[in-house]
Amino acid sequence: MRHGKTEFNLAKRFQGGAVDSPLLPESIINAQKVGSYLADLKFAGAFASPQERAVVTAQNIVDQWEVAPKIKKIADLREMNFGKWDGDLVAAHQGEELFEQFLKYPSQFEGEKLGGENYYQFTHRVQAGLKSIFEEGFKAEENVLVAAHALVISFAVKSLLGKSFEEIRATGLVANTSVTVLETNDFNEFKLLDWNNTNFLI
């Protein structure tokens, strides 16, 4: 699931792997709603990006469960590194060639020019993070919670399903505090059971 909305989200600032911003009060409430929504399921583990917005979201979810697993932080699940863009207003870069690549032509985006990542580097890193969770040896019927970020979830899930970077960008990113369910038994074949679900927030 994606973390809740932050002050940077509200201000429409880049919020990548190098910066953090506090969650809004409503985001804590929404994370608790997610916890209640998932409370009837059993989770064998809980994982999060090491960034505070993801960890706090995850903690507020598991706190709603009868048995709350300890949250393990996975460094490879950090949000995309935007380099010198991180923390800037998004509007400040609209119209720039790199921004157009970032948004519309992700396979061409040269994030390294900013001191950050391109989409190939980013997606490889995040997939490695998810594989490290899989390799902990959970049973086929067991669930694990992963709390992360918009680009992390959208690109990891859709790329594992075989979608191109352009397809992923064109269909949009997951919303704040949304739940996505991906199933695999071998980390080779994947099935998308739910995508960007926020029905529990109503």
From TrEMBL:
Superkingdom of origin: Bacteria
Secretion signal span: none
A cellular component annotation (GO) from this entry: cytoplasm
SUPFAM superfamilies, alphabetized: Phosphoglycerate mutase-like
Active site: 3, 79
A UniProt-annotated Pfam family: His_Phos_1
Positions that bind substrate: 2-9, 53
GO molecular function, one term: phosphatase activity
Protein name stated in the entry: Phosphoglycerate mutase
Annotated source species: Ligilactobacillus agilis DSM 20509
Biological classification of the source: Bacteria, Bacillati, Bacillota, Bacilli, Lactobacillales
